[in-house]
Amino acid sequence: MEVSLNLLNKYVKIDDQDPKELADKITSIGLEVEGMHSLANGNNMTIGYVKECIDHPDSDHLHVCQVEVRPGEVTQIVCGAPNVAAGQKVIVANPGCDLGEGFVIKQSTIRGQESNGMICSMAELGLDQRLLSPEDKDGIHVLDENAPVGEDPLEYLGLKDTILDIGLTPNRSDCMALTSLAYEVAAVLKRDVNLPEIKEKGTPGSNIEVKVETELCPFFGAKLVKGVTTKESPAWLKTALLASGIKPINNIVDISNYVMLETGQPIHMYDYDKLTKKEFVVKTGFEEKAILLDGEEYKLEPNDIIVSTDNGVGCVAGVMGADSTKIDENTQNIVIEVATFDGPSLRETARRLNLLTDASQHYIKGALNTANSLNILERCANLLEELADAKEIYETVSTTLYIEDKYVSVSTQQVNGLLGTNIQTNEIAEIFNSLKFKYELKEDTFNVKIPTYRNDITMAADLIEEVVRMYGFDNIPSTLPEMSMTIGKRTEIQEKKHMMKVLLKDLGLHETLTYSLTSPSLVHDFNIFHDQEPVKLAMPLGEERSVTRQSIIGSLLQVINYNQSRNMKDVHLYELSTTYSKGVELQNLAIACTGEYHGLSFKQISYKADYYLAKGFVETIFERLGINESRYRLERVESDNESFHPGRSAYIKVQNEVVGVVGQVHPLMEKKYDVKDVYVVELNLSALLNIKTGKVKYQPIPQYPSVSRDIALVMDESVPANDVCQKIIKSSNKLVKFANIFDVYVGEHVEAGKKSVAINLTFQDEKKTLEEKEINAAMEKILKAVEKDFGAVLRG
C-alpha cells in the first residue's frame, strides 16, 4: 500500500518528522515500511514566466523562449513542446537539475541557439506514466496565473512528497483507510488525529427506495445529490490521487476514490436520470451477460451479488458498475452508494471476471467500517457540494444499521503473564489512551470498548498484542521459558519400533521407504486389516497416486520388481509405515524376501528364502516383543485366497484376531507385479504393540541335567505340526522344555493321507534330576493328549 506523507499529514501532524525516522517508527509497531521514494524528481527547479516565445529560425518545431526564472532574471530556453506560448507560468529545470536516472540538465546550444535549462512536462518529473493524462505526456505543464515566479514548482504543486510503501499483514486491513493509519501514527508520536468535519445535510423527498434480498449484504445506503457539474478536479485532489497510485479522471470519480482512500469504504455513484425506477435491489440469481464500465461484456452467474436497477444489472456489487448507469460529462444528478458486501462472495466473483479492482480488494480484505457508513455518505455529499457545485442534497435512504458495541477485557497480570514483562497498569493505560481506545479500569483490569474500525481485535490476546507493539518489541527482555525438566527418551511404542528396526537390520534386511499413495487398481491387493474404503485424494497428481494404500506388501513388490529387472536377484526388504482407510489409520510392518538369504559360495552352501525364513522373522519379532508362542497361532489362509499362496501361507492370530500374515505371494499376484518366488510378512503393529506382556524374568541356568527323547507321531496331513508341539509342552506338567520337529515323512509305510512327524523332546526339572519313571509317566500323558486332540499316534 502506497501512502503519501503529505496526504497523511492532513489527518495527523507529521510534517516535522524526518521521513526515514518516521518509517522506522511505523515499522516498529508492526506496519512494515518495505520501501520509500519521492513522488517527483528534480532539484534546482523554479516556476518561470514565458515573456517571449518565437519560432526557432532553423527548425519547424522548436521555439526560442525568453523565460523569467526568478524575479528580474531572464534566460533563454529552447523548447520543442507544441503548446508552449508567451504569457505562461511553467516548470523550469535550471542547469544542474537532476531529474533522476542520470538525466542532468546542462547549458547547451541547440541548432545555433543557446538554451539554459528545460521547460518541463509532468511526465518528465518522474511520475508514474500510467497515471498521467495524454496532455501531461505530450506537452509542457502550464501552471495557473497565480503561481509565484522563482518558487519551487514541486512545492507549489504539492509534488514535493515522500511515498511510503507499507506491507500490511492480513489482520490489519483497516489501515487501508488513511484515517485508521493516522490513528496508528498518532499513537506512536503521541499526537491527536484530525478528522475532517462532516456536515449532515439532506432534505426529504428523494423518492429512492432500497431493498436487500440476500444475506450477503448487511447494509446498503443511498443518497441523492442534484445539480452537480462534472469537470476537472482541483490540483490538490489530483495530486493526492497521483501520490496514492490512482489516476485522476474527473471531479465526480475522483471524489469517490478520495473518500475510499480516506475511509477504506468503496463508493459507487449512479446517474440518477438514467434510472426509470428510482429503486435499488440487492440480490443474487442473475444469469445473464452485462456490459460494465470498462465497456466489456461479462457473464454473470447466480451466486454473484448484484445491485439491480430497473430490473436489470445496475452494478456488480463491490466489483464494477454497469455501463447503463455510469457517470458521464452530462451527468447532473447523482445517487451515492455506500454498502457492505460479503467478502468471500466478492472474491469469487472478482477472480472469475478477472476484475480485482481497488474497490473489490477493500471488501475482500475486510477493510470496511460499516458503523461509519452514514457518515461516509455525508462526506461524499459535502465534497460534491464543495468541488462539484452540488445544488440539492437529499436525506440518506438505507437499510437498518445496528452495530453492537464490542468489549474485550484484559488485566495487567494477563499482559505480563503472556509477555514475560513487568509493565505497570499506568503504562498500559497510556498505551490505550494513545490508541484512542475507550476503557473502564477496575483495579488492574481494563474493559476496553473496541473501535468499530478495528475488526482484528476479538479477545484479550489481541489487546496484549496492541500493548506489546506500542510498548516496543525491543524493550522486552530476552528470558528463557520456565518449564519442568523432562527426560528426553522414546515412548514405549517408539522404543518397540526402534527395537524392531535394529533387529531386522541385524537379521540382514534392508529398510526401504515407499509412497503411501497408490493406484485404485492396486489398493485392495494383500489387504487383510482394513474393511473401510481407501481415502481418495481430492486433487491427485495422477491416477497412479490417487488413493492411500491399505497394505505395504504391494509397494515392496514394486521395489523387488525394480531390482529383479536389473539383475539383482537377492532382495530382502522391510518397511515400517502407516496404512489408511476412511476413519482408520494403522501402523504396519512388512517384510519381503526373494533369492538367496545367506550363503557361503566357497563351501557351496546356499539358503534360499522360503516360508520358514519368513516365519522365523515373525517368531523372532514376537519373542523380542515378549509375546510367548502360546499366545498366538498360525492358521492356513483360505484355499481361494487371491493374494497369498493357499498352501504356503498362514494368518497370525492372537485371541482369534488376525494380527498378521506370513507366506508366499500367490502366483497370479507374482505375475501381476512381475516378480518371482517372493515370501512376505505383514504385521498390524497398532494391535501388536498394545498387547500387554509380562516383565522379563531372569532365572539361573538349571543345575540338573536334561533328558532327550525322540518320538514319531502319525497324524492327518492337515494337522498343523506346530499345534501338536504346543500341546506336548502344555500337557507335560512343565517337564518338556522344548519340542522341536526334525523330520516330516509322507510315503511308503505311512497310510495315505497321513504324515509321520519326528519330534525331539527335551525333559528337564529345575529342582532335581529326573528319574526314568517320571519321564515315562509324562510320555504316557503326552501321547494320550495328542491322540485325543489330533488323532496322533506313535508310529509302529
Characterize the structure shown.
- It is a single chain.
- With 796 residues, the protein is α+β, with helices and mostly antiparallel strands.
- The chain has six domains: 2-39 and 162-189, Phenylalanyl-tRNA Synthetase, Chain B, domain 1 (2-Layer Sandwich); 45-157, Beta Barrel (OB fold (Dihydrolipoamide Acetyltransferase, E2P)); 209-398, Phenylalanyl-tRNA Synthetase, Chain B, domain 3; 407-475, Phenylalanyl-tRNA Synthetase, Chain B, domain 1 (2-Layer Sandwich); 492-688, BirA Bifunctional Protein, domain 2; 707-794, Ferrodoxin-fold anticodon-binding domain (Alpha-Beta Plaits, 2-Layer Sandwich).
- 26% of the residues lie in helices and 28% in strands.
- The chain contains 20 helices and 41 strands.
- It has a seven-stranded mixed β-sheet with strand order 27-30-31-37-36-35-34, with helices on both faces. Strands 3, 4, 5, 6, 9 and 10 form a six-stranded antiparallel β-sheet that branches. The chain has a five-stranded mixed β-sheet with strand order 12-15-18-19-20, with no helix packed on it.
- α6 packs across α7.
- The chain is elongated and about 140 Å long.
Q: What is the assembly state of the chains in this entry?
A: single chain
What's the tally of helices? 20
**Shape summary:** elongated
The name of the CATH architecture of the largest domain is: 2-Layer Sandwich
And the CATH topology of the largest domain? BirA Bifunctional Protein, domain 2
Biggest sheet overview? 7 strands, mixed
CATH first level of the largest domain: Alpha Beta
Radius of gyration: 44 Å
